[in-house]
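pinned: reference chain
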Amino acid sequence: MNTFPTETDSSLHKLYTDLSWVYDLIYLRIFDYEKQYKLIESSLQKNEVETILEVGCGSGHLMTILEEKGYKVTGLDLSQQMLEIARKNVKGELIKQDMRNIKTQHLFDAIVCLGRAFTYMTTNEDASSALKSFYKNLNNGGILLFDNFEERMFHPMGHSEWQENVHEFDDVSIKRRYRNRDYDPDYLTWHVDWEYIIEKDEKRQFIEDHSVLRQFRWHEMKQELIDSGFTNPRILDESSFTVIAEKRD
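pinned: its structure tokens
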């Protein structure tokens, strides 16, 4: 994997802090959490998973489904605001930590990191630290399930023009615009600009947001997983670049 000159931590942009309530509303429409669960359901069952650490749990939508299916789930997120919303929806433990340095009281049968939270690992150092952290927090025989953007399947500059969505709710209207720019083919990163126009209680608010994301090459990701101690890394779903790997000491 290429070496980045500096580390970039863009994981806490406004959507996960000041706009966490916006995330909670609109991502139920943007993401199909039931579909996400169905994608990993057979892997969880096949590996007799009982305990799960969901990394990047956000406001708890997927965690709620996992708990309803009978799993004991701990949610982890870097945003305190997101965890406060999640607390209203889930039963399990919630912890505020960085995926690059996870420290928990016990190990887990599975670590799940979906919603492309891993794409905020924009340097090789970030990615390596996160994968090694995942490995350390799994039981022997445990599995890792996470998704990313894959270089061959996703072309960021296909969205270089402003894209716009409007989400209408009973008491608020949210217009969300975004565009990708400045793709770097050497480091596989790009910048994302967001604009939010929020109309609520006869008031209009305009908020700009920004972040950096990264895509991965499968052969490089596979090697990084092996270097981190995982065995049998493979692609579970190509369209979402969902990867599964195992911890077998």
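why pinned: The first helix runs from residue 20 to 30. Residues 98 and 214 are 17 Å apart (CA to CA).
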